[in-house]
Amino acid sequence: MSTSMICRKRENPTGGRRGGYLLAAIAAIPLILLAPCGSASAATAARPRWSVRPAAVRCGLIRPGRMVTRQVTIKNTGRVPLTGTVGSLSSPFSVSPSGPFTLAPGQVLRLTVQCQPTQAGAASAKMLVTSNASARPMNVAVSGRGAKGAYPPAAASPTATATPTPTATATATATATAVATLAATATATATTTATATAAATATATPTATPTPYVLNGYVLIAGGMDNFNRVLSTAELYNPVSGAFDCTALGGVNSSTGACNNTMTDRRYSHTMTALQNGKVLIAGGLDIIGAGQGCVSTAEIFSPGSGTFTATGNMTDGHCFPHPAVLLQNGQVLITGGEDLTGNQVNTGDLYNPATGAFDCTGLGGVNSTTHFCNNTMTDVRFMDTATLLPTGQVLIAGGSDGTQVSTAEIFDPASGAFKATGSMSDSREFHRAVLLPSGPDAGEVLIAGGMDAAGTVLQTAELYNPATGTFTCAAGVSSTPPVCNASLTHGRYLFTATFLDAAFVSGPNAGKVLIAGGEDGTGKALATAELFDPASGLGWITGSMTTSRAFQIAKLLKTGPHAGQVLIAGGVDDNGDTLSSAELYNPATGTFTATGSMTTPRTSASAVLLP
């Protein structure tokens, strides 16, 4: 009698499939025998298997001249070699590598998709991927939208770059003059020679009881890109009393550029700014050329509120560019992790900044690796576009991000041991999400993780809560379906948004203890003006008043002093037309409304900001 054979599907402990159904027809009269997929008979008939993630790539809103990169991963999930071809993409998109490929079982091919529009308007293309695993090719949809406006002509670039960078002598003289003038209250000395300025300073110093600038509660915003895609070294301060941005404490206004005289030592965007325990601000990393992986800045600098000046400090041991997190630890040091390095590779390295020495070193990270010269202790996974949150225990939760594709994993950094260790995973993979510690209320001590984009390219409406006591994440609004999927918590799917905890120490009324979630982009790449209040008690967000304009890549800070204490300052970003914004507005939790406040001296997107202590 002739037989046929079917291999039995084998499930792994986590529910994923190993092997598959294989049918080897031997004769027309079937006697069906069941055998494990790992048997010799099944192995001889093994079929190639593969996965391509994500199936759709969304680059979002991009200003012409700027490049955004996304990752697509092809994996051989079978037990025999996988062969195939990656097709090219039409302009304004490109993919690398393209052409034929061969992958051994379990091997992964990571493709980099580049989105670089040359004009305004929507663009889309399909990347054709074929393989011996399927008769039908895989079409990966790629989309993006060029924003309004064009990159400035090449002839204008040298002038634009050189203008905001006066000579060190001129800057120092202007700063010294301004300090002496304010300290001695002798405005006539502002135009004196360096000798007269020094004399005025020496005379005024004994009587200058307060520091020249009292900036407690001011918001420092620095760097980013302007409306011509120029990377900025300029900075400005928001005065919570006057409700205006100005240059009073930053060396005055530069008559040529209209920006503040005192600038950072390096141009930067997508950098980090951290308020230190000594009142100063650490500014680190970022990029100084448009495009991920280009122009990585491994330098760092210090802003001193007392003098309103920026000075270089020690460099990081590794480059931490593009979106990477920085966290002020309870011991006063700053932990910086992940991002992209000087070659554009995503990294798992960490750095610790010690304000006492003004340097980054590996003392608290297992010492220096003699081969790589980076710190020995590294994260459990490569990550960029992730979040890092200081827990009440003094440990740090690092969650999500991308290691070539978006991940759901998370880990804990323990300053006591200087080590990173894995913790529970999120229900959703996420990048460009937001994380907020909930210091009070029913979920006090837990971390809210909201929104972002998952590995399939879906912009998420879900949110989850991390419990440090159990080391687990739970869906904020509960779960549904099988397998469990988080219910929607947010009113809109969002990424590139801001999330601000409305601290009851400064906010009164029923909205105290909630989280203001504002702006960002949705799944179509549309910049949003909508905002919502997330309630940790219910795990749901509900619509509050809309912003005066749509914004993504903006900054948001809760004001703690002045007549608007308890309100949230939101400034800059790009709107739905792709215009880089100089406008700013205030959210009032008592009324649930946004109102315009003073505009910045310079339009900025992808800038960083910090509330000065």
Model description:
The longest helix has 17 residues, at 168-184. α3 (168-184) runs parallel beside α4. The protein has a five-stranded mixed sheet, with no helix packed on it. A hairpin with a 2-residue loop joins β13 (121-131) and β14. Mean pLDDT is 82; it is low at 1-44 and 150-211. It contains four helices and 44 strands. The chain is globular. Helix content is 6%, strand content 34%. By secondary structure, the chain is mainly beta.
> Major sheet: order of its strands?
7-14-13-9-11
- Estimated share of beta-strand residues: 25-35%
Q: How many whole angstroms does the radius of gyration measure? A: 27 Å
Number of helices: 4
What are the defining features of this structure?
613 residues; mainly beta; 5-stranded mixed sheet; 4-stranded antiparallel sheet; disordered N terminus
